[in-house]
Specification:
Blueprint lengths: L1 E5 L5 E8 L6 E8 L2 H14 L2
Antiparallel strand pairs: 1-2, 2-3
Length: 51
Amino acid sequence: MDVRAQTASGRYLRVIYVPDPLPDTVFVIPAYELTGKPLAAFRRRGKKKHQ
């Protein structure tokens, strides 16, 4: 699964994870900050979704 979210400090992260066999836990594969073109694309999609 893939999630893009904003941290409390305002940075945007992309996190890829899979559910863990233990209840209420996940295993994070990579997590990295969005910058440049991927960040601009994310913001564009967010604007279209909220209109």
